[in-house]
């Protein structure tokens, strides 16, 4: 904020508004003066997994039907419930339990609130009424007065307050809550209508599609969240790690700043990685076989394999997982005939080509690298009346794309690899089920 204010001053610009999006499903206990009482529980924090395990199947279904959220450690509700059970003193002292988005809105405006696109990731908000669900609050043991008010995404929360202005140099300007990061990413790619699948690969990969109604999955593997504009919803599936897993691999086998080397080495390896198979669930598994306790593996290794073989197999494994999640979305009513790829990993052509070859769909990569920020800007401009709708603003900004088409030759290779991968998966599931029986 300070850098933005300084540049605006140097360029003689006027800052017309501040738009905010952020990651979701974090929990921060704060005092009555909105001072943090403990380190924030991030979305990746899985310490509440045991609590999720304790809930009966009927409870999981009730949570899903009411909130659109699969009950996993990622959601905010079990994190809050864990605080109440394991840190009752901290829970009792907490005036509010809020997310990163809510805390930043407070710092900017002095108002404690959240918006429905972020609240829909808590497993506490009714996905249809867009209000905190009394049923869910009772189930998780959360006091209603510890939660902030819910606003629609695209709401003007207030103006930059004096304290924030003094700290950063930002002048008083409207502050707009644009929504959760994944919803704004879909918006920033120009996907304001259904029919296209968005794959945003950062720390994890989010596979999303716009829908007119909340998608209900009989297996409760996908999530339904509110979109950041209009009366639409986002069907979401995800894995537990993409960039996180790649960073681990780089740190272990390439050293820091080694992704360019990895990307070049991948190009020297044939499609299918000489038959090596990677199940890349080193941070747990996501859709369609969610399991926070899952472990990854490399299989089919022989003496011809090199570091590059492992690297290519890892990226192929991530693409196979994305394809599995996407197909699960399709089985539950989402639709799409092409993929829009974004996020840090999409900067590397080898990944995008593998994604096209394994899914069998054309993959488009927008030349605008900051799709999430662009989506937040489009929502804010619409809210403030600077444009008639976000699609009007986005227009040509989303037209420049690089297209990756599936290779029929490599498609055949991956079809055979997929069958072998299913056999390894079956063995993995059986082992996981046996382990679960012992827990």
Give the helix/strand layout:
Blueprint: H1 2-11, E1 18-22, E2 28-30, H2 49-54, H3 57-67, H4 76-86, H5 88-93, E3 96-98, H6 100-109, E4 113-115, H7 116-119, H8 134-140, E5 149-151, E6 155-159, H9 162-168, E7 174-180, H10 181-188, E8 195-201, E9 205-211, E10 223-226, E11 233-238, H11 243-253, H12 259-267, E12 277-279, E13 297-299, H13 307-331, E14 336-342, H14 349-359, E15 363-366, H15 371-383, H16 390-394, E16 401-404, H17 408-438
Parallel strand pairs: 1-7, 4-5, 8-14, 14-15
Antiparallel strand pairs: 2-3, 6-7, 8-9, 9-11, 10-11, 12-13, 15-16
Helix pairs in contact: 10-15, 12-13, 13-14
| Gyration radius from CA atoms, angstroms | 22 Å
Q: Tell me about the biggest sheet?
A: 7 strands, mixed
Number of strands: 16
Tell me the distance between the termini.
48 Å
| DSSP strand content | 15-25%
How are strands sequenced across the largest beta sheet?
Answer: 10-11-9-8-14-15-16
Individual helix count: 17
**Low-confidence region ranges:** none
Please state the structural category.
Answer: alpha/beta
Overall outline: globular
Mean pLDDT: 92
């Amino acid at each position: 904020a300070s850098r933005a204010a300084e540049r605006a001053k140097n360029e003689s610009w006027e800052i017309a508004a501040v738009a905010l999006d952020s990651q979701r499903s974090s929990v921060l206990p704060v005092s009555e003066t909105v001072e943090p009482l403990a380190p924030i529980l991030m979305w990746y924090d899985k310490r509440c997994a045991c609590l999720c395990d304790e809930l009966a199947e009927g409870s999981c279904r009730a949570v899903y039907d009411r909130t659109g959220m699969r009950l996993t450690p990622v959601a905010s509700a079990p994190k809050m419930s864990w605080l109440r059970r394991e840190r009752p003193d901290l829970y009792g002292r907490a005036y509010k339990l809020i997310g990163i988005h809510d805390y930043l809105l407070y710092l900017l405006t002095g108002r404690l609130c959240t918006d429905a696109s972020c609240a829909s990731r808590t497993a506490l908000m009714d996905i249809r009424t867009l209000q905190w669900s009394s049923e869910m609050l009772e189930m998780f043991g959360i006091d209603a007065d510890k939660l902030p008010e819910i606003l629609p995404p695209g709401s003007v929360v207030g103006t930059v307050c004096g304290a924030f202005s003094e700290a950063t140099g930002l002048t008083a300007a409207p502050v707009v809550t644009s929504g959760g990061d994944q919803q704004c990413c879909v918006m920033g790619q120009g996907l304001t209508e259904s029919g296209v699948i968005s794959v945003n690969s950062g720390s994890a990969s989010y596979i999303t599609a716009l829908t007119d109604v909340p998608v209900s999955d009989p297996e409760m593997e996908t999530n339904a969240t509110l979109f950041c504009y209009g009366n639409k919803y986002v069907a979401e599936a995800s894995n537990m790690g993409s960039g996180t897993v790649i960073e681990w691999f780089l740190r272990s086998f390439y050293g820091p700043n080694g992704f360019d080397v990895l990307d070049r080495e991948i190009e020297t390896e044939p499609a299918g990685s000489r038959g090596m198979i990677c199940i890349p669930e080193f941070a747990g598994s996501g859709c369609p076989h969610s399991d926070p306790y899952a472990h990854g593996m490399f299989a089919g290794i022989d003496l011809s394999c090199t570091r590059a073989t492992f690297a290519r197999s890892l990226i192929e494994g991530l693409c196979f997982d994305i394809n599995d999640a996407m197909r699960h979305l399709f089985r539950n009513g989402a639709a799409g005939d092409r993929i829009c790829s974004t996020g840090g990993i999409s900067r590397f052509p080898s990944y995008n080509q593998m994604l096209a070859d394994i899914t069998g769909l054309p993959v488009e990569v927008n030349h605008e690298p900051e799709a999430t920020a662009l989506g937040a800007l489009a929502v804010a401009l619409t809210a403030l009346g600077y444009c008639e709708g976000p699609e009007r603003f986005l227009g040509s900004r989303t037209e420049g794309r690089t297209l990756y088409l599936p290779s029929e030759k490599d498609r055949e290779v991956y079809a055979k690899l997929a069958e072998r991968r299913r056999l390894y998966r079956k063995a993995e599931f059986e082992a996981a089920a046996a382990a679960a029986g012992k827990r």
